[in-house]
Amino acid sequence: MDLASIIGLSMSVIVVIVGMALGGDLMQFFDVPSLFIVLGGTFGAAMVANPLERTKIVGKIFKAVFVSEHIDMISLIQTIVSFAEKARREGLLALEDDASQLEDEFLSKSIQLVVDGTDQELVKSILDTEIGLLEERHSANKGFLDSIAELGPAFGMLGTLIGLIQMLGNLADPSSLGPGMAVALVTTFYGSILANMFAIPMGKKLTQNSSEEILARELMVEGILSIQAGENPRIVEEKLKVFLSPAKRKLLDANKETE
């Protein structure tokens, strides 16, 4: 569960609602036709802009923002270094059982390729291709949120234009101009909320999660290739520590001292 996403979204919603309530009646911000135009129009147009396969998994795309497993890079390095130590003592074939027990399919596949005696250049090519395709899938899935971020304000403006046209059609009744203008502007408000409170932040979180996963996989590739090359486990660890922030490097060193 990503607490930052949940807390951040809740905070945004609460702040906006409180600001609306302090300025007057909350019900003046509620208009069913405006909601219908912005939400229905935006999601309909987003479906046009994206393939059906992506539209079918839109629920999973939203879920990935709030339910994401952060990768423990320190534990990952420790695991790979332990594999390097075992391979140095017992040979690469000794890693086969470990590979079958790993939950991470990418790491398991990487080790299996090495155990099978695959050429090092081919291993790197296969794994780099898989990383590239994963990055493309993540970018494509984020495209649905990007579509909502682009289209939401546009449909908000479209609803405002519809409201203004209807308002101008009732110029004979001056008392209706004020309420009519307020309703017309509500659709722009809805479009802005949809884009800036939901779609854009969610898209940025998906990008961040994707970058984290890609970095972890690049670390795995570097570690597995080093093991295949028969490098000293201490050298393997030093190479992998490059992927960590300075604070996490110190934490990794501290963990080693307490062992």
SSE topology:
Layout: H1 3-22, H2 32-49, H3 52-56, H4 58-66, H5 73-90, H6 96-101, H7 105-115, H8 120-168, H9 177-228, H10 233-241, H11 246-258
Helix pairs in contact: 1-9, 2-8, 2-9, 5-9, 5-10, 7-9, 8-9, 9-10
Give a verbal description of the structure:
- The chain is mainly alpha-helical and 259 residues long.
- It has 11 helices and no strands.
- The two termini are 30 Å apart.
User: What's the total number of strands?
Assistant: 0
Uncertain stretches of 5 or more adjacent residues: none
Structural class: mainly alpha
Q: What sort of overall outline do the alpha carbons produce when their principal axes are compared?
A: elongated
User: What's the N-to-C terminus distance?
Assistant: 30 Å
Could you estimate the helical fraction of the residues in percent? Answer: over 70%
SSE sequence, one letter per element: HHHHHHHHHHH
> Tell me about the biggest sheet?
none
Please state the average pLDDT score.
89
Oligomeric state of the chains?
single chain
- Over all CA atoms, what is the radius of gyration? 26 Å
- How many DSSP helices? 11
Q: Which percent band covers the strand fraction?
A: under 5%
Describe the structure in brief.
This protein is mostly helical. Helices cover about 80% and strands about 0% of the residues. α1 (about 5-20) runs antiparallel to α9 (about 175-230), α2 runs antiparallel to α8 and α5 packs antiparallel against α10.
